[in-house]
Amino acid sequence: MKKSLLALALAGLYAGSASAATPSIEEMWQIIQQQQAEISRLKGDQQATDAKVEATAEAFESSAVASVAEWANKTSVGGYGEIHYNNLDDKTGNKDVDKADIHRFVMFFGHQFTDDVRFFSELEVEHGLVKDTDGGTKDTTNGGEVEVEQAYIEWDYAENHSAKIGQFLIPVGIINETHEPDTFYGVERNLVEKKIIPATWWEAGVASSGEIAEGWSYDVALTTGLKNDEGKIRSGRQKVANADADNGALTARIKYTGIEGLELAATVQHQSDLTQSDAAEEIDANLFEAHAVYQNGPFQLRALYAMWDLDDAVKAVNDGAEEQEGFYFEPSYKLTENLGIFARYSEWDNNAGDSTDSEYQQVDFGVNYWLTPTVVLKADYQNQDVPTGKTELDGLNLGVGWSF
Asked: Which domain holds residue 395?
């Protein structure tokens, strides 16, 4: 009897314990709902976090793309180049010329910082490569040059007036500032502007340009100058390569374009000492240049005169160099939109101050064929008349040029 009562007591205790440990169906449902609510909340938090991450990534990507697009929109890249073939007979019996040359390869880089401030530059490779001999000296037989032709900041400081600060082309002549091959006739650049001016010619300094009246504009530049003790103008270009700046140069130009198709311009430059104080006596140098360009439909005429007046002190080392001058005139006619013909007569003398025969003459005639407005094929024939004993080269020139 006692055993039966004990068994019943133990069974009741077990049943009560089991009842306390196991939740009811209603309690289980409530727990499940609470867990589901928690899971839903966590999912919502995760989705919100994912949305924020995605929005942040999109915003960053959009900002980066916009920044790159803005930079690209304000940055410009271009260039020009020309390849020549010269087949020239030396009439004086020295050495004929039969050669091909990638004469120039130039890249432009520019950037617009603001509406008023911009940057412009040109990097040029001449004659395809730069080659040194084993001794570290330049190989002038077939070596070229790598040079920064321009690198300047331009600032529009007032309406219709701007300033240049840096390295830039001197405002003189017709081709010194505009010399892309599609803009002129003939395979080679004309020898008057090359030998007398001397194009292409750049210096470092400051300049101002602008419009002073309708059709009238000006350029004024204070820059580094030439350096040559013998009055050899072209050899005096320092190209702003550790240039001696003991004596600078002042250049001023006035230009008239008030009549459609007509450009008239005159430039003067003064340099107090062409030797940059390296010689016992200073050589004062003054340049005068004037030109006209007239365009009437398919017909164009270019004419230019330039001269240097050097101090008589140069006579001691290079008699005749105290006066150097040259001129040319060039009519051309476009037979079609793509095909043009030209002729050019040139005279120049880098020792015109003495009585000896030192004058060069050259006649050129030929054709330009523009595949596009900025891609051109060229062919011309040159005939020279040179001083006694100098090399006289007559013959054919072929070329291709481009700009973009």
From this structure: 77-403
